[in-house]
Specification:
Layout: H1 4-12, E1 45-50, E2 53-59, H2 67-75, E3 102-109, E4 112-113, E5 119-122
Antiparallel strand pairs: 1-2, 1-3, 3-4, 3-5
Length: about 140
């Protein structure tokens, strides 16, 4: 998830915009998926729907860089440890969600759903100490 209003404000100021991705609840993830369920991570079908309308529907085979290359590049900057989650981007189809929307997501391998990967999230407002303000 990305708070686009926060991202655009940070970009306008020439600041890093990682804050736009760091809010609580902005990274819903599924249950752990056994490695055996994904024999070829470069051939996994990812999908995401909002309120039943398919928004993202693509394959990991379209990634610009293969996973070993990505891990090598990341490892040049920071140590990767067991349990770390590496986020590599998203398929085409990003768009807004609003309070009350329901997002569903999952993975398919060989045309079959990976049960552990199924995810359903209802979009809800969450209030905290941060207050967004345009400058």
């Amino acid at each position: 998830m990305t708070g686009r209003n926060v991202q655009e404000e940070a970009k306008k100021k020439g600041l890093p915009w990682s804050i736009a991705k760091g809010f609580d609840t902005f990274l819903p993830i599924s249950s752990p998926i056994p490695k055996s369920a994904i024999p070829d991570p470069h051939n996994v079908h990812l999908w995401l729907s909002v309120n039943g309308a398919m928004k993202q529907d693509d394959s990991t085979e379209l990634m610009l860089f293969r996973i070993p290359r990505q891990l090598q590049d990341i490892s040049c900057v920071m140590a990767l440890e067991k349990g770390d989650i590496v986020l590599t981007g998203t398929p085409k189809g990003v768009g807004p969600v609003t309070t009350g929307d329901v997002m569903k997501a999952g993975l398919k391998v060989g045309g079959k759903d990976i049960p552990e990967a199924k995810l359903e999230v209802e979009i809800a407002d969450k209030f905290g100490r941060y207050q967004f303000a345009e400058t």
